């Protein structure tokens, strides 16, 4: 067994190695691909037809070394939120509350784990389609993992639920303001256009994902040795323990802790949904915060710069989970020193995962500094417009998949490309909504499989799943999803 383990570990480079190698490849490309720039509008979006060559800025060894460090400038809030979620989950673990409730859930679904998988996949899908759940996927992975392990399955099942579930939701992005909201605004159409197609995508894709995961789960349940992670099964069981024996009931303090736990996630979700993009007249949260600021004593004590629901991001998420951690600690009457120790211990446990984020962001830094992003985009602009509509959709999906692999940011990708690609679609005889759906599908698919995807690399890294193994096991399924999505997009936007 030990020899097998050694071989597996040698064949599976860590997330850091994979990302570093891609960083080097991108740096080499800056020496090959000429530099270029687009003129930008007031919102910072590229203007179609304004591309001009620019002086190249090849990235050297120093730039490769600085890339992840500069990447931390845009990733510090994400990394910090991951670490503080580690603190929150550590506090919940210390309280014993989450163990009891997860144990009860595991017992309930012990003989019907298919239902649990479908429910979790669609929950993650809703998170993705409403608020673009992506970097925070690791947080839900840590929460779901003990349940899945207690059912006799493996860590891969949970990672698939998180990665495919969240990105299946993002792929459809029915109302995701950070994706369809931004892209529609740039294209000059309503976010509601094309929604029926995205609803169809959501239902079909999430159903296929659920079936796929259930089939894999059945295989592992029947024969644990079929799991690629069987060599470390005992370690994983110890890492994500749940006591399945006995009939323990939660104490009063543990019940209060679970209420806090649930409220933290409810507030997180409500706070991250951009409500005004769904209805520009829905300004209740902004108005409420403004009103608080006008109350003499209350406004001064609470602060006049409170971020309203709908405008919150990782900074506010970090504060939320930190407050939740302290509240749970106080419920259990822990002294301040013990609470601080738990915060530090929990944060330290996820530092390796948190460091993946700036490394992945470093790739985008090199592309931007090297000036090759606009050149790659111009290549697509100059080669796609003359294609027949059905071929145009296919080639655009491939183009967007490649571009999203290098820039897996929904808002960033839309800002960099949509002002060019949407008019390009019209020239090719395709409606703008088709291009937006292509962008969404390609981005979602890229974030399911590519090594620049933060959710893929953080979840696989945390569970010692080799990236090569992840690709080997799932590339055919991602290809199937791509084919299904292509048919749905063509049927909705081209044929009819």
From TrEMBL:
<feature type="transmembrane region" description="Helical">
    <location>
        <begin position="477"/>
        <end position="495"/>
    </location>
</feature>
<feature type="transmembrane region" description="Helical">
    <location>
        <begin position="313"/>
        <end position="331"/>
    </location>
</feature>
<keyword id="KW-1003">Cell membrane</keyword>
<dbReference type="InterPro" id="IPR018385">
    <property type="entry name" value="C4_dicarb_anaerob_car-like"/>
</dbReference>
<dbReference type="InterPro" id="IPR051679">
    <property type="entry name" value="DASS-Related_Transporters"/>
</dbReference>
<protein>
    <submittedName>
        <fullName>YfcC family protein</fullName>
    </submittedName>
</protein>
<keyword id="KW-0812">Transmembrane</keyword>
<feature type="transmembrane region" description="Helical">
    <location>
        <begin position="387"/>
        <end position="406"/>
    </location>
</feature>
<feature type="transmembrane region" description="Helical">
    <location>
        <begin position="413"/>
        <end position="430"/>
    </location>
</feature>
<feature type="transmembrane region" description="Helical">
    <location>
        <begin position="258"/>
        <end position="278"/>
    </location>
</feature>
<feature type="transmembrane region" description="Helical">
    <location>
        <begin position="436"/>
        <end position="456"/>
    </location>
</feature>
<dbReference type="Pfam" id="PF03606">
    <property type="entry name" value="DcuC"/>
</dbReference>
<keyword id="KW-1133">Transmembrane helix</keyword>
<dbReference type="GO" id="GO:0005886">
    <property type="term" value="C:plasma membrane"/>
</dbReference>
<feature type="transmembrane region" description="Helical">
    <location>
        <begin position="72"/>
        <end position="92"/>
    </location>
</feature>
<feature type="transmembrane region" description="Helical">
    <location>
        <begin position="195"/>
        <end position="214"/>
    </location>
</feature>
<feature type="transmembrane region" description="Helical">
    <location>
        <begin position="138"/>
        <end position="163"/>
    </location>
</feature>
<feature type="transmembrane region" description="Helical">
    <location>
        <begin position="170"/>
        <end position="189"/>
    </location>
</feature>
<feature type="transmembrane region" description="Helical">
    <location>
        <begin position="12"/>
        <end position="33"/>
    </location>
</feature>
<keyword id="KW-0472">Membrane</keyword>
<feature type="transmembrane region" description="Helical">
    <location>
        <begin position="113"/>
        <end position="132"/>
    </location>
</feature>
